[in-house]
Structures are given as structure tokens and as C-alpha cells.
Automatic annotation (TrEMBL):
The keyword Signal does not apply. Belongs to the yippee family. Keywords: Metal-binding, Zinc. GO terms for molecular function: metal ion binding. It comes from Carpinus fangiana. This is Protein yippee-like. It holds the Pfam family Yippee-Mis18. Signal peptide: none annotated.
Length: 106
């Protein structure tokens, strides 16, 4: 009988709190503050900080930093608003930096 394996997850690099599902990855070709980042449709077990306008590589966006709800490590940000029409698809989505997350159940 085969062993049952749970869903592939990403966890906080600091405390291993589960923060996202692999199935929710939209793109792995984003840029974070510290290198590569992934765009996720959803995140879990995270706290969202205050909104602020930031000039990013793709234009002006309203974003909010995203923290691990257990250890408070900053993992990335949530796109709250995109001002350019071509960037609207990002609204409500999450950037998690590759250096801040680790794979689980792979």
C-alpha cells in the first residue's frame, strides 16, 4: 500500500509555519526585495500589514507587507491595488520571496 502524501506546501523559512500551497503558485518569475519571488493566488497563516504605495519595477502599486503569523518574519507583500491596467491581474495576490519560504512534502 502506498504511503499517503499531503499537498505540497511552502513554509516560513524561520519557523516552518505553512504559508502557501504549491497549487496556488501563479508565477515563479517575479522579483522581490531580495531576489526571486513567487506570485500566489492565496496565502495562509499570514498577517497583512498596513497598505502603502510603492513604486515597483512594473509601476505604482498599493501593497501591504505580509508576515508569518507565528514568528512575524516578513515573507513578502500583498498587492492591494495596481494603478496600471496591465497590472490589475495582481490585485489581491501575494508575493512570497523565495529566500523566505521552504518546500514541504516534496
Amino acid at each position: 500500500m502506498a504511503d499517503l502524501v499531503g499537498p505540497r506546501l511552502y513554509s516560513c523559512c524561520n519557523c516552518r509555519n505553512h504559508v502557501a500551497l504549491h497549487d496556488d503558485v501563479i508565477s515563479k518569475s517575479f522579483q522581490g526585495r531580495n531576489g526571486r519571488a513567487f506570485l500566489f493566488s492565496h496565502a495562509m497563516n499570514v498577517a497583512v500589514g498596513p497598505k502603502e504605495d510603492r513604486q515597483l519595477m512594473t509601476g505604482l502599486h498599493t501593497v501591504a507587507d505580509v508576515y508569518c503569523c507565528d514568528c512575524r518574519e516578513v515573507l513578502g507583500w500583498k498587492y492591494e491595488r495596481a494603478y496600471e491596467e496591465t497590472q490589475k491581474y495582481k490585485e489581491g495576490k501575494f508575493i512570497l520571496e523565495k529566500s523566505k519560504i521552504v518546500k514541504e512534502n516534496w
